[in-house]
């Protein structure tokens, strides 16, 4: 799994980059079946919504994964960059699980219909 990190209006420090790679590498286990069909690329964008706001939800994280037939996307807004990354990772994990479930359920549904 390849993780591409992009930032806007925010400097990505080495510690933040390592944090993002650690968090999204946990998805590699989940998406190992997808990697058999080709390498899974995950694009992670971390940014500040505005430069002039100092408080509140000003950090934005977006994660996009291209899977066969679809593009899975997750976004999160938080008051801390690391929290936004965690939320985006959790949403993307759920999206991958839904996609993997739909891949296994479609052949079963057609097999059930053929039995009748």
Folded structure, characterized:
This is Ribosomal subunit interface protein. It comes from Candidatus Jorgensenbacteria bacterium RIFCSPHIGHO2_02_FULL_45_20. The longest helix has 35 residues, at 81-115. Strands 1-2-3-4 form a 4-stranded mixed β-sheet. β3 and β4 (70-78) form a beta hairpin. It has helices at 14-25, 27-30, 32-35, 81-115, and strands at residues 2-8, 41-48, 59-67, 70-78. With 116 residues, it is an alpha+beta fold. It has one domain (2-115): Double Stranded RNA Binding Domain (2-Layer Sandwich).
CATH superfamily: Ribosome hibernation promotion factor-like
Give the strand order of the largest sheet, numbering strands 1, 2, ... along the chain.
Answer: 1-2-3-4
CATH architecture: 2-Layer Sandwich
- Helix percent reads 40-55%
Q: Give the total of beta strands.
A: 4
Beta-strand share of residues: 25-35%
Topology-level CATH name: Double Stranded RNA Binding Domain
Q: What structural class do you assign from the helix and strand content?
A: alpha+beta
Pfam families: Ribosomal_S30AE (PF02482)
Protein name: Ribosomal subunit interface protein
């Amino acid at each position: 799994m390849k993780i591409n990190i992009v930032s806007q209006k925010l400097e990505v420090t080495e510690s933040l980059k390592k944090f993002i790679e650690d968090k999204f590498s946990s998805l590699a286990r989940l998406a190992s079946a997808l990697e058999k069909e080709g390498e899974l690329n995950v694009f992670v964008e971390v940014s500040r919504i505005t430069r002039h706001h100092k408080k509140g939800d000003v950090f934005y994280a977006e994660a996009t994964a291209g899977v066969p037939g679809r593009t899975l996307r997750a976004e999160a807004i938080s008051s801390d960059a690391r929290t936004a990354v965690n939320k985006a990772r959790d949403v993307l994990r759920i999206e991958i699980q839904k996609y993997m479930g739909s891949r296994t359920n479609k052949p079963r549904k057609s097999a059930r219909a053929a039995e009748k």
